[in-house]
Design goal:
- By secondary structure, the protein is of the alpha/beta class.
- The chain has one domain (about 5-185, about 215-240): 3-Layer(aba) Sandwich (Rossmann fold).
- About 45% of the residues lie in helices and about 15% in strands.
- The chain has helices spanning about 10-25, 35-45, 65-75, 105-130, 145, 155-175, 190-195, 195-205, 215-230; strands at about 5, 25-30, 55-60, 85, 135-140, 180-185, 235-240.
- A 7-stranded parallel beta sheet has the order 3-2-1-4-5-6-7, sandwiched between helices.
- The longest helix has 27 residues, at about 105-130.
- The termini are far apart.
Length: about 250
């Protein structure tokens, strides 16, 4: 048993990670940005057979003062947390050659959530992680951070920056805290559901394993980092079916 905090846990990937942790016997703090009803539904769906106590909590990753208050509440209630998963993220489609379409506001919004948000969460929860026996931070990245192919240029750059932060903090926070990026390719979730079928088919056909990832694929990788890879830190674990090897 242990306690895991998952930001963005009301979404598809985050909820799958919460489900996996609960199945592993952990108590889960289901973090959400705005959708308290969805987060409550996730909590209600989680396994409690091992006596776990799951809760939903507003974790606005771009509000450092709020994060400090949440960390204080968790410290009072639990004293420590074992796992922090930074899953909250955002993007919007902007063609890579549409430089005017990628406005300053869009860029700042993406980086505030996708890079500053995870850093702010780690900063806020560091003392709680330090108090655990074998603490782990998992940042949910993207293959876009390596390939430069994705929903827009800023999104790709934000994920590359997140991977760089993973490496820096693995060095800075070790040996006490491990820090790892889990980097999916296309995931069959809310964002993919808004895409034309032909785009998904193109991605699937260019993937050596001939399918797109599911939230459960990502969750399995996160669980493996926490439970099965005790000597792994500062690295990027891909969950992309070999997509960068494709020709399209």
């Amino acid at each position: 048993m242990g306690i895991a905090v998952v930001t963005g846990a009301s979404g598809g990937i985050g909820s799958a990670i919460a489900q996996r942790f609960a199945s592993d016997g952990m108590s889960v703090v289901v973090g959400y940005g705005s959708s308290s009803e969805r987060a409550a539904a996730v909590v209600d769906s989680l396994d409690t057979s091992a006596g776990q106590a799951h809760v939903a909590a507003a974790i606005p990753v771009t509000d450092s003062d709020a994060l400090a208050a949440i960390a204080a509440d968790l410290a009072e209630q639990h004293g420590a947390i074992d796992v922090l998963v930074n899953c909250a993220g955002k993007t919007q489609p902007v063609a890579h050659d549409d430089l005017d379409g990628l406005t300053d506001d869009v860029i700042d919004d993406i980086f505030a959530t996708n890079w500053r948000g995870p850093f702010a969460c780690i900063r806020a929860f560091r003392s709680l992680l330090d108090a655990a026996a074998d603490p782990v931070i998992v940042n949910i990245s993207s293959v876009s951070g390596v390939t430069g192919q994705g929903s827009n240029v800023a999104y790709c750059a934000s994920k590359a920056a997140l991977d760089s932060m993973t490496r820096s903090l693995a060095r800075a926070l070790g040996p006490k805290i491990r820090v790892v990026s889990v980097s999916p390719g296309w995931v069959l979730g809310e964002y993919a559901a808004r895409m034309p079928t032909e785009i998904l088919d193109t991605q699937r056909n260019a993937t050596p394993l001939a399918r797109l990832a599911t939230g459960d694929d990502v969750a399995a990788a996160v669980s493996a980092v926490v439970r099965d890879l005790p000597f792994t830190t500062g690295t990027i674990i891909s969950v992309d079916g070999g997509r960068p090897l494709g020709t399209n």
